[in-house]
């Protein structure tokens, strides 16, 4: 049996009750896109129940559903990628990871500069594309890497890929130095390499981003699958998010389409007769390219691309395979208060040729309900979450 879990990074479905605390009141990534674009139409997600989650947007409800649907509340007190993924694999984080909205302490930056042997630029919260516009020319002249953060617990470093200016290998090296530095008591969630290319006035980020996460604080569903003799195939950022823990093999991706193709290859390649095969994919373009940049039309185009590709997954799946689709947080491209993630419910879709169809799974109390369901399928014990397996078999 194969279980496929695809995370549409940032595809939220409505503000959580505490969203106002995060300056996210009114956020609804999918709903607000549906309201703004012409002829919103995602027919295959609709067959899984998408429009039943967006009933206030007057979309045509499909009464002939082929899957089941619901939405999930984030029990963890944050709206961050690692925490969202950890929660769906069984870890609920009550204390948020530290953030630095005013930049990192000067003594910390001084220590970091001493370790990497060069000065740095920036050290403030910013959009990645904007800080490259602001400081790219100076970096190009001096070779000093650009340090910045966001509303998340991240230490981001932007640098040019050309070795004459900085170089990709060197960027990864100084990110590894930062990762070793920023553990407890700082415990920064992720150090992120943000490489770019081009010349002054024409800089462009590349797909060679690399995330260096802290270890999950406890065993996750992934660890338990591997310990039980199963295999976990991480596609996209999954290996980075879990810092390699519980990953049997992995494939990095250059785009959403690349991620979908590699996921489909894994579905076809691994026979369903092998016990406990878990294919875990993150499609990051929704968040990185369109959500944070508040590009509504491009975000919708990406949703259309995924929706059309879904048919290939449906066709390729064996009779006992199960596909779950969800998200890790929101990043509403229509939200103008800030350009960071938005605190939202995430959608939950389930498809399997032998499963019930049209089941409303309701609003789940935690992302961990998804992990607990997968754990029950694989006959594995997981501490958090409430399985909904009996509702769909």
What features would you describe in this structure?
With 393 residues, this protein is an alpha/beta fold. It folds into two domains: 2-95 and 214-392, Alkaline Phosphatase, subunit A; 106-210, Alpha-Beta Plaits, CATH 3.30.70.1250. It contains 13 helices and 14 strands. The chain has helices spanning 29-36, 43-48, 81-88, 106-116, 128-142, 168-181, 221-227, 238-241, 256-269, 285-291, 296-316, 368-377, 389-392, and strands at residues 2-8, 68-72, 121-125, 146-149, 154-160, 190-199, 202-205, 210-213, 231-235, 249-251, 277-283, 322-326, 346-351, 360-364. Strands 10-9-11-1-12-13-2-14 form an eight-stranded mixed beta sheet, with helices on both faces. Strands 3, 4, 5, 6, 7 and 8 form a six-stranded mixed beta sheet that branches. α9 packs parallel to α11 and α10 packs antiparallel against α11 (296-316). 51% of the residues are buried.
Gist of the model:
By secondary structure, the chain is α/β, with parallel strands linked by helices. It has helices at 29-36, 43-48, 81-88, 106-116, 128-142, 168-181, 221-227, 238-241, 256-269, 285-291, 296-316, 368-377, 389-392; strands at residues 2-8, 68-72, 121-125, 146-149, 154-160, 190-199, 202-205, 210-213, 231-235, 249-251, 277-283, 322-326, 346-351, 360-364. The strands form two sheets. The protein has an eight-stranded mixed sheet with strand order 10-9-11-1-12-13-2-14, sandwiched between helices.
